[in-house]
């Protein structure tokens, strides 16, 4: 992706307004539910904000849409190769994500991410829409889901209801893993929905 419109920032700006309008939420109400400041939301909708993993996952949770509907991941067409150096990194507390692909099959939607948990760090999530699958490629990863803790090594897999509070912690070195998020197709954002609410003329309208 290149240019501001094809960047994570640009795609989020376009899709956040659409998702908010589809849910019938003002910026004030979205701010209240997501605990993200109104000024920050206005910056995100104008394309001037700096989204983090926490921000995007919080918006996904409140708006009840897949992450890729906010980031507008491209669809496959024949052979598709995604080079790590060509994909913009989404960073946050203790973790870095590269969105690689969205796969739609029947009534299911899958998002594939290259996930890295930084050495000695932890990421906590209050939960978000979907089912989460993780396969560890390198390092040792501690996963806690709703108070239940497991430790994974290279080759191990864990899956859980992502609406539950969960956390990832790198026990040994940087942890490399493949993250797969699974959604129902009826949770998809309607691409034909308007970008603004009736009577709302600016991104920061209440």
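Sequence proposed for the structure above (206 residues):
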């Amino acid at each position: 992706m290149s240019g501001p419109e094809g960047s994570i920032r640009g795609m989020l700006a376009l899709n956040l307004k659409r998702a908010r309008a589809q849910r019938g939420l003002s910026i004030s109400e979205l701010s209240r539910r997501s605990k993200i400041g109104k000024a920050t939301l206005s910056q995100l909708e104008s394309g001037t904000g700096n989204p983090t993993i926490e921000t995007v996952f919080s918006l996904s949770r409140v708006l009840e849409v897949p992450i890729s509907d906010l980031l507008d991941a491209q669809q496959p067409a024949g052979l598709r190769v995604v080079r790590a150096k060509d994909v913009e990194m989404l960073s946050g507390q203790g973790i870095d994500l590269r969105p690689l692909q969205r796969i739609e099959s029947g009534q299911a939607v899958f998002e594939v991410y290259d996930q890295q948990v930084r050495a000695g760090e932890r990421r906590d999530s209050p939960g978000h829409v979907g089912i989460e699958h993780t396969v560890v490629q390198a390092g040792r990863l501690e996963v806690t889901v709703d108070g239940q803790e497991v430790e994974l090594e290279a080759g191990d897999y864990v899956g859980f209801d992502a609406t539950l509070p969960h956390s990832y912690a790198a026990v040994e070195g940087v942890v490399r893993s493949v993250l797969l998020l699974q959604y129902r197709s009826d949770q998809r954002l309607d691409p034909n929905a308007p970008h603004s609410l009736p009577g709302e003329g600016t991104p920061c309208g209440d």
